Structure formats: C-alpha cells, structure tokens
Protein 1
Amino acid sequence: MKSEPKKVVKNTGLSFSFPMNVLKPLMDYLKGEEKRLVKAKSSLKKEDPFKGKNREEDNSIDADVAEQVDHDRVFASRVELIKSLINIRKTLTRIKIGSYGICEKCGVMIDTDRLAIKPTAEYCFACENEVEARKKR
Ligand SMILES: [Zn+2]
C-alpha cells in the first residue's frame, strides 16, 4: 500500500472562515488600532521640525543637524506607522471577504498561535520566512 502524499489544503473559500465570535473582537481591535495609528500619524506630522510653523531662526549647523536627525527619526516612524496601517486595513478587508487566516502565498491555514501573536499576518510561518529571506538578499 502506497502512502498518500500529504494533501495541501487550498483556499476553497468559506470552509476556513473563523466564527464571528472570534472575528468580531478582532475587528474591533483592528479598528481601534487603526484609529490609534491615524492619530499617531497626525501628531508625528506636527513633531517634524521641517513642517513645524515655528521653526526657529537659528540656522547654525548644529541646529540644522539636529533638525535633520529629528526629521529622519520622525520620517522612519511615519513609514512604520503607514506600514502598520496598511496591514490593518488589508486584514480588515480579508476578514470581510472571508479569507482571513489563510496564507496569501500557499493558501494553507495560518497557525492560530501565530495569528494570536500577529493578527495581521498575511503568510504562514514557512512563507513568511521565505519572504523575509528574499528581502535580505
Ligand atoms: Zn504559506
């Protein structure tokens, strides 16, 4: 008797969807996070010395360097914020269309432990590793 190859479960639509009692609190959480990030993003804008209205008249090199460093720091946090916002919105969309928790790459169910830690995970652990490894190259 030959052994059956392990079946790869493909995304077949609704068969995988999480029950609403799991999704509802998750959606509430994500919406809360979305609000928080939008707020943080707009307050970061105010913090950016390049955009501040009361930029000091002090044009010494030291002050300019300090402003540049501040600007870079603010810019980096804004990039992170925008990335998180995109992830949250994508996740909310996937909940709505019923593909939440399914790996975008290979279509298998993402481990629920992994989703508990990172609810916005798009890929299963194996695919995430692959994507990360590709980025580093
Ligand atoms: Zn995968």
Protein 2
Amino acid sequence: MRRVDGLNGGTGCGRADNGDMTAVLVVHAGRSGGTREIAEVIAAELREGGLTAELLDAAEVEDVEPYGAVIVGSALYHRRWRPEAVRLLTEHEEALRNRPVWLFHSGPCGPLAAGKRVSLPAGVALLAARIDAERTATFGGKLTPDTASGLFWKIMAAGPWAGDFRDWPSIRAWARDVGRRVRIRVTL
Ligand SMILES: Cc1cc2nc3c(=O)[nH]c(=O)nc-3n(C[C@H](O)[C@H](O)[C@H](O)COP(=O)(O)O)c2cc1C
C-alpha cells in the first residue's frame, strides 16, 4: 500500500495514521479556463466530503510532499497534455509515487463528446505508470468563441465542436469517488 503519512508537516493534525482529515492537492493545466473550472468543482466536492483541498495551477506547484493525495488534470491540445502538467509529473515523480495520484484530462467536444474516453498521450502514460497513478478520467471540454485565440481556434469554436461539453454530474461523481478512496486509505 502507498504511504499516506507526513500530512500537515507531521503535526499530528490530519495525519493518515490517526484517521483525521487529509489534504488533497488539485492541480490544473489549460489555456482557456475550462480545466481550471473542472478542478474547482472537484476541489469543492472533496471539501464537501470533509477533506482539505488546495487548488493550484500546474506551473505554481513547488512541492507535493505536504499532501496526502494529488489530482492532476490537463486540457488536451493536439492530443497532448499541457507542458506544465507534464513537467509537474516529471519533476515530482518520486514524491508522487509515494502517494495516491489521480489523473484526468479534458478535451472532447462536439456531438460525440459524451462518454468518450481518450488514452493518455504516450509520454504521460509512461509517467503515469511510473507514478502508479489511478486510471485516468476523461471529461468533455469547452470550446467557445469568447476564449478562442488565433484563427484556427476561432474556426474550431464556431463549428460543430463549439459548446460546453463538460458533464458536471459525472465530474462531481468522480470527485466524490476519489474523495471516498482518499478517506478509505487514511482510515486503513
Ligand atoms: C487548437 C485546439 C486543439 C485541441 N485539441 C484537442 C485534442 O487533441 N483532443 C481533445 O480531446 N480536445 C482538443 N481540444 C479541445 C480542448 O481540449 C478543450 O477546448 C478544453 O476544454 C480546453 O481546456 P482549457 O479551457 O482548460 O484550455 C482542442 C482545442 C483547441 C482549441
């Protein structure tokens, strides 16, 4: 089983071994805010479930050691994860391996977006295996003209892929499930 000790600087409060509340880091990486909004909803669900959740942009993360569990989410662009999310997984590989990690990506838009599962890009899949991350969740994305920058993006945001395809009930359900698993690990 993975280690979940060392929470809150080992003060005793929130320690995994006494079953108190644990801290979850929720990381997001994107370009136009859609993934951040998903991460916000995930963090809110975790808090509802009695956990502490801190929300950070992938570029802001300096240390994952203070957290008992980590969730990393990236937007998909041209079938790739955002570089700052890949960098986070690379730079903190060892620390991430020592705590439960969940990954999600957000991207699929258009009429076929609902329920679509996207595989991790190869490099991220390798990192996920090394970290021993849980199965990756795919969430629909958001493609709207107001946040589109550049001609290609504006064309995409005006076509059949335009719209908001984020399925909030399934995002919330996923977050609740993660929260349950974090709490179970803490009490074991
Ligand atoms: C230029 C461009 C390329 C995209 N490439 C992909 C892709 O390869 N796979 C996918 O599922 N979604 C793709 N999308 C959709 C985005 O992932 C989606 O809009 C997502 O919600 C953006 O998240 P963000 O607002 O956090 O940046 C693309 C969108 C744009 C504008």
